[in-house]
Amino acid sequence: MLRRVLCTVLFMGALPSLAEVSQGHISVVLLGATGDLAKKYLWQGLFQLYMDQVSSGHSFTFHGAALTALEPGQRLMFDVLKKLACPPDESPNRCAVLKDQFLKLSQYHQLKTAENYTVLNREIETLLRQEGLKEAGRIFYFSVPPFAYTEIARHINSSCRPPPGAWLRVVLEKPFGHDLESAQQLAADLTSFFREEEMYRVDHYLGKQAVAHILPFRDQNRQFLDPIWNRHHVERVEIVLKETVDAKGRTSFYEQYGVIRDVLQNHLTEALMFLTMELPANVSRAEEVLQCKLQAFQSLRGLNKNSAVLGQYQAYAGQVQEELQKAQDYISTTPTFAGVLIHSDSLRWEGVPFLLTSGKALDERVGYVRVLFKNRAYCTQSETLRDAEHSQCKAKQIVFYIGHGALNTPAVLVSRNLFRPVMPEGSWREAVGQSDLHIFGQPLSDYYVYSPVKERDAYSVLISNIYHGRKDFFITTENLLASWAFWTPLLDSISHQPLRLYPGGVENQHLLDFEMESGEVAFTLAEAVELLNPNRLTPSDYRTIQSKFRQSPLVSAWSEDLISQLASDIEKTASRTVARSGQFHLALSGGSSPVVLFQRLARHHYAFPWKHTHIWLVDERCVPLTDTESNFFSLHNHLLQSVRVPYFNVHPMPVHLNQRLCVEEDRGTELYAKEIVALVANASFDLVLLGVGTDGHTASLFPKSENGLEGAQTVVLTESPVKPHQRMSLSLPLINKARQVFVLVLGKGKHDITILLSRVGHEPKKWPISGVSPSSGQLVWYVDYEALLG
Ligand code: BG6
């Protein structure tokens, strides 16, 4: 049948005749021809190959294969083939003719037994002999699970090799192992059947046009990049693949692999290598590229568990339980989000942070490689080149935009204040930007933007490269093992690392933001929900505990554990803030709940940056500071006398001036407000610690208070219903300017107000605490089980 078709196709008018098919015949065998990948990309890629190469002098046949029996397999496969699309730049008539031929040149085979392979081989040989065609080569595309690789490889090697003079190319899809050892094993198995040059390991990111262009871009722009492509000029590099989809329907694969194995070890690492490797003299010579890549792997500094932040979207565990029939209490330790900080110790890159980030169920789908250059110069250039807000020179960056996101197309962007890049004419063209679009904080017009003349799917690019024998687009065994050798120690060290749970999509807000400090990474915000010692809970308690309280993150535990968690979160915030800005402004509330926290913090002598911490009071009672009822007195007793906060960094509230207490004319509130403005940048405290009263008051802001719930005043005098009545307090608007607000709620006595607060909206007049809503900072609730569950 195929024979008759091949002849018909070859003798059709516009196409080459048999005589012209002098380059010989290529048989493409697609194993897993009815699977997902084949349906989505591979058949379309093969059709594209046929359209592109129909006049190349090669003739083709396409053999879809699977375990399914002949009839149903054939039906399934042709259902897919019938739906093949014509590319927009192809004339519809030509495409229709070629599609018809492509369908005729395709055939389904059941490949299950050794015998099936022998039969396939015989069919190919017979066809070629009868047509008098010379065999150029055979492509076997493995779109099957890796456990089937060895068996198939054995069959191909023993009965489907082409005759001498023709080439064999076997194409392999990941996963190629799940750690160094398993990858070595799989590689050893395959090398017993195939030679290295016969194997084409696919990483489809190498077929993405923006990724594939990194090396050529570096090569063609050597004149501009040579002086700046190094640690002296590059601030940091971000390599990002964000996805909105989750792992639903794929958990049987995903649960074993997780995000690092799924995309960081391969796709993002390859992009990292293209950026960091030294440029070979000839960037299209596979062997030279490989040697430079291996050298770049050697220079990577080893990772440890503090090199990564990990998360899991909340619905994941349920999906695993359902799809893999796990028990209700099954806990998955598979990360679906990771941010990893990588350093290279090469002379070129030492000290430059490379951040690799990927996750499922995030807020947007986008992929990019972003090189951000240092920007310390005072800008003497004209307004148009200057960042208006900071009167600095505008950011300088080069972005290889892989796809999706705001641009929704692959692109290369170069800040106009860097250089106008050299781009290959014919394949990339300068894009006319949408003026209102912003990419990484800058209008598109700030960049030279180039996009491909013809956008091509990664698989079409790769299939074309397989045909052309371009091995530089594929992963060699050495490359693969070098990558696993780099990632395996991290994977081992994090296998029991706690994961941050995230709700998914836009709701993640800043929960997954992370920052770098002394070569390590940590989430910027305190944990969203922390069930410490869950063993001490009864099963019914679980249902009542939510990850959010009043739409803000909630940390809940028994009070003792909660306090130690809160103290440690305050310490972490302090250290990070000091690392960033040199000082930490902490405002603490009075009352009884914080006392245990003060006592706990008093034990944080060493790691807490007390020397750089400023302590402010959130509120004070109008009593002398030496009075036992004074909030400052309590703070001093329980904390300040045990830690070394410099004297000038402690800021008690001036309630006692001119030997009288809280008299308006003494302007104590103004004094304190001025001190805040003078010392705290933007009057925005780094952290404000609040409590909640049973009546819903917070700080010394009571229900129906005339002062402090709104308005411009930042420090106010207020009246409390209980003694001592007179108080001084930070106002709600000032509290809401803070970068972080932690609210501590302890004890059974607070259960009723906790329940009430969980239901009410923003009504600060009735319940002042409900008006706490930082305008750009974060609010976290620390509520102990007694207050939460009663
Ligand atoms: C695959 C991963 O390799 O890459 C998937 O297995 C991921 O989990 C996909 O979704 C991302 O590729 P693309 O082309 O959609 O960015």
UniProtKB/TrEMBL annotation:
PROSITE patterns: G6P_DEHYDROGENASE (PS00069). One of its GO terms (molecular function) is glucose-6-phosphate dehydrogenase activity. The keyword Endoplasmic reticulum does not apply. Pfam families: G6PD_C, G6PD_N, Glucosamine_iso. Keywords: Carbohydrate metabolism, Glucose metabolism, Hydrolase, NADP, Oxidoreductase, Signal. One of its GO terms (biological process) is glucose metabolic process. This is GDH/6PGL endoplasmic bifunctional protein. Residues 559-781 form the Glucosamine/galactosamine-6-phosphate isomerase domain. In the C-terminal section; belongs to the glucosamine/galactosamine-6-phosphate isomerase family. 6-phosphogluconolactonase subfamily. It catalyses: D-glucose + NADP(+) = D-glucono-1,5-lactone + NADPH + H(+); D-glucose 6-phosphate + NAD(+) = 6-phospho-D-glucono-1,5-lactone + NADH + H(+); D-glucose + NAD(+) = D-glucono-1,5-lactone + NADH + H(+); 2-deoxy-D-glucose 6-phosphate + NADP(+) = 2-deoxy-6-phospho-D-glucono-1,5-lactone + NADPH + H(+). CDD domains: 6PGL. It comes from the Eukaryota. Pathway: Carbohydrate degradation; pentose phosphate pathway; D-ribulose 5-phosphate from D-glucose 6-phosphate (oxidative stage): step 2/3.
